[in-house]
Specification:
It is a single chain. By secondary structure, this protein is α/β, with parallel strands linked by helices. About 35% of the residues lie in helices and about 25% in strands. It has an eight-stranded mixed sheet with strand order 6-7-8-3-9-10-12-11, with helices on both faces. Strands 2-1-4-5 form a four-stranded antiparallel sheet, with helices on one face. The two termini are about 35 Å apart.
């Protein structure tokens, strides 16, 4: 690690991930580069199936058993996650990183009370004194109050099925932030919630992360959510990061054709008809395109785009895009 990397909470370098299937090797991540600084809120935006969840699961080393990482490095606080022993990985998940999944029903065990599950998470956090029951109770109640949960003492005695979807998601947020965490990963945490609840949950998540001085990695398919929640945005397409910039800068100007297409998909409050979609579909990962993976859908693609994979071009102000057109070479 270099001196410039000392403030990095997470640093992924040239990461490749494949899945073994009956049809063959599915090549999902194609040399992903991604980083998050300490205390920074970063969003990963892209269509369903672009590899967003695979990227963050790689950090926690919770990929499915049929996965393979042929190349790449993942650093957490300067330590290579892929070289960690089982005990170090357990400590990483217990104290350094936490993840909020998009479906709270799948994240919570239906046969244990909320309190039992929160106490277990707190006990495994590695914080001094957290083995005591009174400390666990105090931290759990405090965490639930911070997520605006009414009557937290009653909630601790409840089972997941007795709570609404919004309440279950708040429990997951409280569980993730009951003890200090360096990085919180939220995988589309509002997907299964009513529109009226989504904004509340996102605001709570943002406020709690900021108050704990934790870093946030937010996965979302909504540029609107990313704009309200993040300091910086990565745009991901078919296993590649294609553009990154500070949030305000990205909304001011988009360099990659895919980001431009995503922007055109945002509904306009001023009207003007139905927002247009992006023609085509994500490529087949069994046999992905040789060059830029967006080339088959890109209206600006030329021969070089189909033959070579573009590297990141630095446009200044922390704005980078992986497109030959940005280099001025086309």
């Amino acid at each position: 690690m270099t001196l410039s990397d000392t403030n990095r909470a997470v640093d992924i370098r040239n990461l490749f991930v494949e899945y073994k299937t009956y049809a063959g090797m599915v090549k999902v991540l194609n040399g992903v580069n991604f980083n998050v600084d300490a205390g920074e809120k970063v969003a990963i935006v892209g269509e369903t199936g672009c590899g967003k969840t695979t990227t963050v699961k790689s950090i926690l080393r919770i990929l499915s058993s049929n996965s393979r990482i042929p190349k790449g490095e993942i650093f957490f606080r300067g330590k290579d996650v892929l070289k960690m022993k089982d005990g170090e990985v357990k400590q990483l998940r217990g104290a350094g990183l936490s993840m909020i999944f998009q479906d709270p029903t799948m994240s919570l065990n239906p046969v244990f009370t909320i309190g039992e599950q929160m106490f277990e998470a707190i006990r495994n956090s590695g914080q001094e004194g957290c083995t005591r029951k009174d400390v666990q109770q105090e931290l759990a109640v405090k965490a639930l109050k911070e997520t605006s949960m009414p009557d937290p003492e009653r909630i601790l005695l409840s089972y997941p099925f007795q709570l609404s979807g919004g309440m279950r998601q708040r429990v997951c947020i409280a569980m993730s932030l009951a003890t200090p965490r360096d990085v919180v990963i939220a995988d589309e945490p509002t997907t299964n919630l009513d529109v009226t609840i989504q904004d509340q949950v996102l605001k709570i998540l943002k406020d709690r992360v900021e108050s704990k001085n934790s870093s946030l990695i937010l996965i979302t398919h909504s540029l609107g959510v990313a704009r309200e929640t993040s300091d910086r945005i990565y745009v991901m397409y078919a296993g590649n990061m294609v553009e990154t910039a500070p949030t305000a800068e990205l909304f001011k100007r988009q360099l990659h054709p895919y980001t431009q297409a995503l922007m055109r998909c945002i509904p306009r409050l001023s009207g003007g008809g139905v927002a247009e979609g992006i023609p085509g579909r994500i490529p087949n990962y069994l046999d992905p395109p040789k060059g830029c993976r967006f080339a088959p859908r890109c209206p600006r693609a030329v021969k070089r785009c189909h033959e070579e994979k573009p590297e990141f071009y630095d446009a200044g102000s922390g704005h980078q895009a992986a497109c030959f057109h940005c280099e001025g070479g086309l």
